[in-house]
Amino acid sequence: MAKITGAQMIIKCLKEEGVEVIFGYPGGKVIPLYDALFDSDIRHILVRHEQGAAHAADGYARVTGKTGVCIATSGPGATNLVTGIANAHMDSIPIVAITGQVGTAQIGTDAFQEADITGIAAPVTKHNYLVKDVKELPRVIKEAFRIASTGRPGPVLIDIPVDITTDLIDENFKLDISLPGYKPTLKGNLKQVRMAAKKIAESKKPVIFAGGGVISSGASDILRKFVKIAKIPVITSLLGMGSFPENNELSLSMAGMHGTKYANLAFTEADLIIAVGVRFDDRVTGKLSEFAPEADIIHIDIDPAEIGKNVKVLIPVVGDAKIVLTDLENEYRKYIEKKGIPDRKEWLSRIKKLKEDYPLKYDRSSNKVKPAYVVEKIYELTKGDAIICTEVGQNQMWAAQFYKFTKPRTLVSSGGLGTMGFGLPAAIGAKIGRPDKTVIDIAGDGSIQMVSQELSTAVTNKINIKIMLLNNGYLGMVRQWQEFFFKKRYSQTCIYNCVDFVKLVEAYGGVGFRVKKKEEVEGAIKKALEINNLVLVDFWIDREENVYPMVAPGSPISEMLESEMLEGV
Amino acid sequence: MNHIISVLVENKAGVLAKISGLFSRRGFNIGSLAVGPTDDEKISRITLEVNAEEHSIEQIIKQLYKLINVIKIQELDPSNIVERELVLIKVSADSKTRPEILEIVSVFRANIVDVAKKTLMIEITGNSKKVKALEDLLRPFGILELVRTGKIACTRGGKY
């Protein structure tokens, strides 16, 4: 039998997993791997910093539903991946990270560029491997993809010592996967599902709370179908945006710290929450003891550890969102066929009133460039059909509030970890995954400077993303907190005019232009969408614009600060 | 409250580190720990003693289940188990005190495993209560060293 190297085996296994693209950065301990990659038709995107590779793999995974792959060398290469891996872990995104490692004989000797990456990454990976024998490679790679993409998805790291990549192995060598402790529950307990259906039918004031799990399990269609027959309003988490169309009258958009007031009030008044693929993060619940005081909770999640972790659950259903919702829709239909359709006119008119009374707002009459106005124009001009990536902070919240997401996998945002610098590399990954789509990074001037070197990655690989930079010369979200809670003492948050972003993007070979006037906004976005290159539009927005409404930290979500209270507008 | 958790894991490098890491990062302390292979050498059993509230122990078990190498977890009911730990106690002993110590040791059905001019080494196996009682009785003679294994436990009867 023909012998191949471990490196060639890795590439062969990646091909078998259907990998089309790898985001990475070479280094001493992965030279043999990159040598094997040289002969392969797998596309490799050379990033400018390994963190970008992990975020790009993450963005790619979010828009395609496939597992993203990134590679880094040992030591600093591997540690630079860690933020990106942690980000994917918090948001349950399937990525496989392959890191080089010093030779097996050198492990533990503090060799040059050695880092115990499996130890470092253990708390932020779903699982990880240190490969100590070339014969383990086929099994480990197969297991890694299986683990990353099934159950509650997440990142898996494979650490491969350099000698393993040069050792020889039979070309057709295979070992069966062996995961005796890994059996995700997919089908929900039918008895629990029936109980849930009954409870829903009996409820007077139910809301659905849809999260990232709905999107990752591909349950958006069945969710829509269920809502259509059950007529229940839908609230989403940040990661759940797009799981239910925001232009539907039953959509209450996002709840939480910067969610809509009507979503937060609906939670507070509801008598039943049907939570699907969410984990009741503190940014959603606010003060936990006063969250949804009237409501019983049905919690559907694939991860049993999420059930009962933060809130008390009446009916838990462990299973895949798509499978459970399919059963639930079926059981609910059967139930109402027998017992009649529940009358929820009162609740639905209350929901309608809440939406009318507390719309999201900003000062539309202002002559300044308002960030909300920019996002609304982006929505209009892309006809709501773009993939929107965000950085983290005010830009992210304005994007979530004012872009109307109607399809799953169209919002790419760092939810759990809140990683500044995520948006640009994630947009690169997203555009590679969905070249047919307009991909926009709604950015902030603070966040993008953490990863601005990736402009080079985008331009050199002709990845024509559009960066809509909401530039206020501040680390805006922190500044907002300082304004509200620290007596306007703007400690270390002013970064005004520190770089000419137009020149910066031009230096990398992209196109940039600046917008300082409201009337230029629309034209600039149009132009950006037409140009066949990477474009950065530097919007000089109203500098001290705040994100409203807002739940102060430690407050219940029913108590929201609004612009009228604080600024009299 | 003290809980004894018995965890079956794949006998692979790094598994113990993953488990102990999980405890520390979720803010739980491990009271005692014993690890060893079962009759199937591919599987190890880890017995942990943890002091935690009911709700926390439920969460820690769920989190443990998420570790890929964990096969099965059982929280043992203290009223229906045999639990044992093994302790070696080195105690000061001269010709005057030796007979008294030997008498205590025999009452406890412990063993003398080493005799020297000025010391005795005692081996005792039992549950924590028994070990503690012997320890208290030997303390006045001067305990020079005390080494204990982690607690191990097995449910009584046919349930396994």
Give a brief description.
Chain A has about 575 residues and is of the alpha/beta class.
Name a few traits of the molecule.
heterodimer, A: 569 residues, Rossmann fold, 3 domains, 6-stranded parallel sheet, 39% helix, globular, B: 160 residues, Alpha-Beta Plaits, 5-stranded antiparallel sheet, 4-stranded antiparallel sheet, elongated
Q: How are the SSEs ordered, and which strands pair?
A:
The complex is a heterodimer of chains A (569) and B (160).
Chain A: E1 3-5, H1 6-16, E2 21-24, H2 31-38, E3 43-46, H3 50-64, E4 68-72, H4 76-90, E5 95-101, H5 117-121, E6 127-130, H6 137-149, E7 156-161, H7 162-166, E8 168-170, H8 190-202, E9 206-210, H9 212-216, H10 220-230, E10 234-236, E11 251-254, H11 261-269, E12 272-276, H12 282-285, E13 296-301, E14 315-318, H13 321-339, H14 345-357, H15 371-381, E15 387-390, H16 394-402, E16 411-412, H17 423-433, E17 439-444, H18 445-448, H19 454-460, E18 466-471, H20 476-485, H21 501-507, E19 511-515, H22 521-530, E20 535-540, H23 563-567
Parallel strand pairs in A: 2-3, 2-4, 4-5, 5-7, 6-7, 9-10, 9-12, 10-11, 12-13, 13-14, 15-16, 15-17, 17-18, 18-20, 19-20
Antiparallel strand pairs in A: 1-8
Helix pairs in contact in A: 1-2, 1-6, 3-4, 3-17, 8-13, 10-13, 11-14, 15-16, 15-22
Chain B: E1 2-10, H1 15-25, E2 30-37, E3 43-51, H2 54-66, E4 70-76, E5 81-92, H3 98-107, E6 111-115, E7 119-126, H4 128-138, E8 143-148, E9 152-155
Antiparallel strand pairs in B: 1-3, 1-4, 2-3, 5-7, 5-8, 5-9, 6-7
